[in-house]
Amino acid sequence: MNTPKELKYSRTHEWLRVMENGHVLIGITDHAQDQLGDLVYINLPEEGDAVEKDAAFGDVESVKAVSDLNSPVTGTVCAVNTELQDEPEKMNRDPYGSWIIEVEDAEIPDDLMSAEEYEQFAAEDK
Amino acid sequence: MDQKTPMYACHERLGGRIVPFGGFLLPVQYPAGINAEHLAVRTRAGMFDVSHMGEALLEGPDALENLNRIMTNRFDSLKTGGCRYTIMLYENGGCVDDLIVYRRGEDRFLLILNASNTKKDVEWIRSHLEGDVRFEDISASVAQIALQGPESKALLSGLCGAEALPDKYYTFREDVDICGVKCLVSCTGYTGEQGYEIYMPAQQGPQVWETIERLGVQPCGLGARDTLRLEAGMPLYGHELSPERDPVSAGLSFAVKTDKPFIGRDALPQPQECRQVRVGLKALDKGVLREEMRIFKDGREIGETTSGTMIPGTRVSCAMAYIDREEANAGTEVEVEVRGRMIRSQIVSLPFYSRTRS
């Protein structure tokens, strides 16, 4: 399992990258894509949508099932990676290169996990 | 308590993701993933552990009469060495199960039942038997492997010789020697591809599995089994077939011989009397059609999906559905409600995929 050190992680298997301008990029982890299997569809929010911590902002579908995408932060969507609509399998191939949404005015909660903590959490999730 | 099939350790060794299904623990997929497994079957070959399927023997001078009376299909003309698909109905015309009957001799038959229905089927059949017959559920002592795909014939010929294999679709051979194990091999399957279903004593299942695996065949799980059968337009009990649906509405009249008496016959509708009929749906918008989604035309609800997925190797979602008969015309555009969103879809004739026969 690949778990980049510079990212933070949620208990619902999203990763967060806090950028220099304070915006947050959110995607799904390597563990999440592995558990979901071949991804075939993503349902994305739109720019300007509000996201709320621990609430669904969209969903991804594998051949077998639908899974919610949960936001680890509260804020406003300022960009959406619409390329994933045409190529959802990119989240399988390159989960950390496949950001899903960019959030501004984000309140970063203090319950996020480090890479080490997340690796242990994900190992117990199997 | 979910049972393990004889090949359970093979699935663990191969990294299969194990899930409970029909009372058994089986891999939904291996590390290759459902897409790769599906495409392996379409282009080369794939192997499935289908030991969860039920098997029962019906033998005796009155076996044939019992089959003709309990099943929708007719078995008089079924030759020894032949297989025949049939449905078994309740008195009200709803489906008990669909199954395949193998004729092993003048009055010896083998019945292949759906895993989750085996117990119910056995009780149903037993309670309707008449005359001089023996009926035995042998599910626990039989393992089954499905080898499916365009390369399956060449692969299996390499193990037992081409002359030992059944030649025609829906025929079988017994005592086929595969790595020293006497197997029953039929030219059948649930993928829409050329292939075989191989039956053997349970304890020899892993040995046969590993022998086929060593040929480089892709192991495939329940996920690919479902996408393949859906693409091939094949019904699945609990989805397209149920006690609430009859086989005429399901489009299975080819297996329903109403010119002889059988349980449920008198409750069946004429084709032109069906309230709803089974059709294929192809999504025109992005999104994935799934089971139990409502279908609308011009704002009016006209049906419901029974199975749906994104077909591997395509970017198109396909579903099977029951639709009001008068609306069930190929080409008609409908809307499917997918979690609050309407996805435009088109009614198409089944199957979605049909192999080019060589």
CATH class designation of chain A = Mainly Beta
Which class best fits the helix and strand makeup of chain A?
Answer: alpha+beta
Mind telling me the CATH superfamily name of the domain at 55-138 in chain B?
A: Aminomethyltransferase beta-barrel domains
Strand content of chain B: 25-35%
Helix-residue proportion of chain A: 10-25%
Structural shape of chain A: globular
Count of extended strands of chain B: 20
How does this structure look, described?
The complex is a heterodimer of chains A (about 130) and B (about 350). Chain A has about 130 residues and is an alpha+beta fold. Helices cover about 20% and strands about 35% of the residues of chain A. Chain A is built from 4 helices and 9 strands. Chain A has helices at about 30-35, 85, 90-95, 115-125, and strands spanning about 10, 15-20, 25-30, 40-45, 50, 55-60, 65-70, 75-80, 100-105. In chain A, strand 1 (about 10) and strand 2 (about 15-20) form a beta hairpin. The radius of gyration of chain A is 13 Å and the shape is globular. The mean pLDDT of chain A is about 95. By secondary structure, chain B is α+β, with helices and mostly antiparallel strands. Chain B has a domain at about 55-140: Aminomethyltransferase beta-barrel domains (Alpha-Beta Plaits), CATH 3.30.70. Chain B has 7 helices and 20 strands. In chain B, the strands form 4 sheets. Chain B has a 6-stranded mixed β-sheet with strand order 11-12-13-10-4-14. A 6-stranded antiparallel barrel of chain B has the order 15-18-17-16-19-20. In chain B, strand 2 and strand 3 form a beta hairpin. The termini of chain B are far apart. Chains A and B meet through strand 4 and strand 6 of A and loops of B.
